[in-house]
Amino acid sequence: xxxxxxxxxxxxxxxxxxxxxxxxxxxxxxxxxxRGRGLAGAVIAAWAWAWACLGTAWAEPFEDGPADDAxxxxxxxxxxxxxxxxxxxxxxxxxxxxxxxxxxxxxxxIHLSAHGGRGKAYQYFLRGFxxxxxxxxxxxxxxxxxxxxxxxxxxxxxxxxLIPTVLVRSMDxxxxxxxxxxxxxxxxxxxxxxxxxxxxxxVLYGAVGSDRSVLATVAWRPEHAAPxxxxxxxxxxxxxxGTARGWRQARIGAGIEGDVGDARVRAWVLGQHGAxxxxxVLREDDVASGDVGFYxxxxxxxxxxxxRVLGAVQAFGGxxxxxxxxxxxxxxxxxxxxxxxxxxxxxxxxxxxxxxDHRAWTAGAQGQLGWSPHPVVxxxxxxxxxxxxxxxxxxxxxxxxxVWTEGEPLAARQADVGAWVVLPLDPxxxxxxxxxxxxxxxLVDPDDDAVAWAPVVAPRLGVTLxxxxxxSGHLAYGRGFRSPDARGASxxxxxxxxxxxxxxxxxxxxxWRWLALRVLGFATFVSDEIVFDHVAARFLATGATRRVxxxxxxxxxxxxxxxxxxxxxxxxxxxxxxxxxxxxxPRVLGSVGLYVERLALPSMNVTFGFRTRLLGPRPxxxxxxxxxxxxxDLTAGVEIRSWMLxxxxxxxxxxxxxxxxxxxxxxxxxxxxxxxxxxxxxTAGAPFALRLGVGWRF
Amino acid sequence: xxxxxxxxxxxxLSLAVACAPGRTVVQVPVAFAxxxxxxxxxxGVSIALDDAxxxxxxxxxxxxxxxxARWRLPSLISTAxxxxxxxxxxxxxxxxxxxxxxxxxxxxxxxxxxxxQDGAYATARLxxxxxxxxxxxxxxxxxxxxxxxxxxxxxxxxxxxIPFDLTLDPETPPEALTLxxxxxxALSFVDWRTDPGADGLLTIxxxxxxxxxxxxxxxxxxxxxxxxx
Amino acid sequence: MSFNRTIAALAxxxxxxxxxxATWQVTTWGEAYIEDGIPASAxxxxxxxxxxxxxxxxxxxxxxxxxxxxxxxxxxxxxxxxEPGPQDVGSASVPARFYDTAxxxxxxxxxxxxxxxxxxxCGADTVAFDWSFTTDTTYVCAPEGLTLASGGTSTTELTVxxxxxxxxxLENADAAVRGQAIVDADxxxxxxxxxxxxxxxxxAPLGYAVGQYSDVTDLAAFVTHLTRTLGHVDGEGHCxxxx
Lengths: 698, 229, 243
Prior knowledge:
The structure holds 3 protein chains of 3 kinds. The radius of gyration of chain A is 24 Å and the shape is globular. Chain A is mainly β. Chain A contains 6 helices and 40 strands. Chain A starts with 15 loop residues before the first helix and ends with a strand. Chain B has one domain (about 25-65, about 90-230). Chain B has helices at about 1-20, 185, 210-215, and strands spanning about 25-35, 40, 45-60, 90-105, 110-115, 120-130, 135-140, 145-155, 155-170, 175-180, 225-229. The longest helix of chain B is centred in the N-terminal third of the chain and has 17 residues, at about 1-20. The N and C termini of chain B lie far apart (about 55 Å). By secondary structure, chain C is α+β, with helices and mostly antiparallel strands. Chain C has one domain (about 20-240). Chains in contact: A-B, A-C, B-C. Chains A and B meet through strand 28, strand 33, strand 35, strand 36 and strand 38 of A and helix 1, strand 3 and strand 4 of B.
C-alpha cells in the first residue's frame, strides 16, 4: 500500500505487509562543524535551545496517524527493496536482542560477531561482505549517520551502544544495492533507526539476569506529547558468564518534538559512557585440551572505555506536493580499546597487546526535498555535508596495560560533501522507475600532510513492476561507496575509494493477507577490492571480487499481532581472478522466528519473540571452514494494567557456539617456544543467560 | 517447538562436527642420526673427532613459497608482520618445538613428534643456540701431521633452506623424519693449515676458524631432513 | 591550501573526473649514495665508497591491478644513476584507479644489467672496481597510496640502493655494510679489484652470512647475489624478489 503522496515518500502506516516497505530517508546535507571538545556542550546547548523554543509544543495533544506521519516524513529514499524489512515499535519489542546492535540481527542475510565484549562494536557480515566493524553497512539514526569515519579501530566503526533500546521506535533494514540518496558505507546494505518513545507517560523498569546483570531504565514522555519528546536514563551493569565479560553502561537521552508554524521540529541528544572487558579469542586446541574453558579468556585479553554524545535538530514540513526535511547534528566521541589477539607471538617480552585511543568530533547537516508536480514524474533531491575531526593513536602495552612503545598519532579532518537526485517516474500504472544519481567529494586533511581528496559519482536505478498487485517484480542497480580512511592519506593527491556495483532482481507476492513471500537474486561486483590493512598501515588492492546470492523469505501472519518469519540467504563471494572464496563471510544464513506483537488478551497485552538463527559454514584462510551454528533466543513480555513483566533469554538451548573463527598463529605462553603453525581461534558466542524484568507505567 | 528447536540444534551440531574442516594434522616422529667421527673435509685433511656437540632448537617445516600471493590479505586480527626481506618465504606448515644438545657422534636419538599439516613441503629451518656452546675436539691430520684441536663457539644463527621435499598425504604419512648432519661439509670451510699457535692446539681464536666453523655449521648442505617411508 | 579553499576548488573537479585514463610516470634514482658516495658513517668498518658509473638496465616497468594483470608499461632503458636527480624511465596510459603493485625488472639487454665503477677506501687503502653483472631480477613492489586520477599523473620511483653492494649478509635483515673484504681482495695489489679477484676470496672466513644460498661461496658470487637486492620503490619501500 502506498499513500496518496507515496512517490515523495510519505511514511507508510498500515498492516505489517505494507510496513515491510522501508521509506525512511537515509542521507542529508551536513554543514560545517564545531571544534573539539566544546562540541558536546554545543550539542547540549542546542538541545536546550530547542527545548526552550518548543517548550509548549509537547503540551499539545499528539495523536498517532497518517496526518502526523505525512508531516513528519518527507522525501523518502527509494522504491521498495524486495529484501528490506521495516519493524515498528511493536515488532522491535518482539525481536530478541538486548542492545540496539543486536536488534540489527532482524536484517535478512546479516551475521554479527562479538569479539570485543559488550561495549565494543560488533563485526558485521552481510550478503557475502565482511563489513568488519561497519565499513560496508551504513546505519543512521533518524537520518543521522552513525558510522564513525577513520575510527582508530576500523573505518566506519558502528557502535550502537549509544541508543537505549527503549528509544528504538522503528527499524528500516535494507540489505542490497545502494539506492536513492544512500551515502558513505552503503556498500552491502544500510539501516535507519527511528528514535522516540512509543507510548506516553513514564516507565520505571528494572531487570536482573543470570549473567550477573542489572538493568534499570527510567523513561518519560509527556502523556500527550509527540514520540520525539522524551527523557530516558538507563544503567546497565553485568559480570557476564565466564571470564572477562563484565560491562558497565550508562545512557541518557532527551528529546523534544513539536510544531513551529507549519513545520514539525524536533531536537534530541543522546549520551553514553561505558567500560567493558573483552574476552578476545581462544585457541581451539587450548579449549580442546582443557587448558582454557570455552568462556574463559587469556590474561590481558583487554577491554575498553567508550563515551559518546550525539544530538540533532530536525525540521520537517510541506504538503502532498512539496515536502522538505532538514537536519543538523553533531557529536563527540572518545574510545579506548585494549586488545591482544596473538598473545606473545610477535614480542615474547612485552606481549602483542595494543591500546587504541580515539577522540573525534562530528558535525553535519542535510536537507531533502520531495516535489510532486505531475502524477507521472516527480523529484526528490538532497544535499549533505559531514565534517569529522579525529585524533587517534595506537600504542603497544603489556598485559597490565603499561605502555611500552608509542605509536605515531594521527590527527585529521575529513569531509564528505554530496548531492543526490531521484526522478520517480510512473509512465504506466504497472511500472514505477526511480533513476537516481549521487555525487560526493571526499576530503581528508591530515595535520601533517597535504589535503587529499576523491570524487564519487554513484548512479542507481530502481524498477518496480505491478506494485500493489498480488505479485510485484523488483529490479535494482546501485553503486555504493566507502570513503577513504584518513590513515591512507599521505602526500595528498587523490584517495582510493571502495566502489561496489550491485544488482538485485526479485519478486514479492502476497496472495493472501496473511501470507507474504519474497525471493530475489543478487550480485555485487567490486572492481578492485580496496581495503586498509591496519597491521601494515597501508591500503591494499586485493583484486576484483564478486558476490552472488539468493535471498528468500516467508512471512505468515495468521492474526494481526502474530507472525512467523523465515529468512534464508545464500551468498558466494569470491576473488574474480583466483576464484578463491572471500574469507570469513558466511555463505548461508537463516532465521526462523515466531513473533507476537502486543497481542491483546483480556486485561493484558502479550509480546513474544522466539527466534532461531542459523549460521552456515564460513570459508577461512588456508582451507579451513568455520563450523555452522544454530542459536535460539527468546524475548517475552506481559503487560497488565500498569505493570510489565519481561523475560529475555540468550541462547535458550545453552549451545556452546562460536560466533567468530579465525586462523593465524599465536603464542599465549611466553615461557614456551613459539609455534609458527596457524591455528584456529574462536570467539565464544553468547552463552545461556536469562533476564527477568519488572516495569511500572505511571 | 522446543523439541523442534532442539532437533534443529542437534542437526546443526552434527553438521558442525562433520563439516568444520581445516588442514589435517598428523604427528610424525623425528630422530637425529649422528655422524661418523671420521671426517674427511677434503683438501688432503682427515679428522678424527673425539667429541662433537651442538645445541639446536625448533625445527620448522615450510611450504613452498607462493609467488602469486603478492601481499598478505588483511585480517581483522593482526598477524605477524612479515620479515622485511627481499625474498618470498614459505609459510610454516609443520614444526617440532624444543631444544636439543645433540651429540653429533653418539647414538641416534629421538627428538619428538613433529606436527605436520597436510600439503607440500619444500624447506626446513633450525635454530642454532649459543648455549650450551658448540664443541668439537679431536685431531686433524694434515699432510700426515697431526693437529689437535679443541673448538668452542657460541653460535646463534638460524639454518635456513634445508631441503625437505615432501607432499604429505595424511592417509599415508611417512613413518618418521630423520635429521642428519654432514660433518665433512661442516668442517670443510676450516683452514686446517692455520698455524695453531704456540700451544700446538688449534682453537676457535686461531685465524678465521671462528668464522669458517660457523659458516660450515649453519651451511644449508650440512643438514639433511628426510622422510622415512 | 586551506581546507575550505580546497573544498571550493575541488568540488568542480569532481564533476570533471571519474572513469578515464591517467598517466603513470616512472622514474629511477640512485639517491645520494650513488650520486655522491657512501660515507664512512654508513659502513660498519669505517670504509667509504664512491661510484663513477652506476648503470642499470630496466627492461620492465609495469603497473599491475589487484588481480595481478599488467595495465600499463613504461618503456624502460639504460640509466646512469650517477647523474643527479631522479631520471625519467617513461610513462604509460593506464585506467584511472587505485593501485598497490608495480613490477620492475633489471636484466641484461644488449649489455650488462648492472654496471658499477667506483672505488672503496678503508683507512689509507683505496681500490677501484669496474664490475658488470648479468643478473636478471624481477622486483614486485608495493608503492604507497598510488591513486591515479582521471587525466592526472602519478609517479612511482624505482630507487636503487648502492650500499647493498657492501652488505655482509644475503638474507639477514641486520646485515652490516662492510668494505674491508673488498679492499683486501686486491690480490695483485694493482689498486683495482676485479670480479675475478673477488671470486678467489672465500666468504666463509670473512664472517659473512649466506643463509640458505649455500652455493654462494666466494665474494664475487656474494656481490653478484647482492645485485638482486638493490631495487626498492619510492625510497625505502620494499620489493619482493623471487630468488
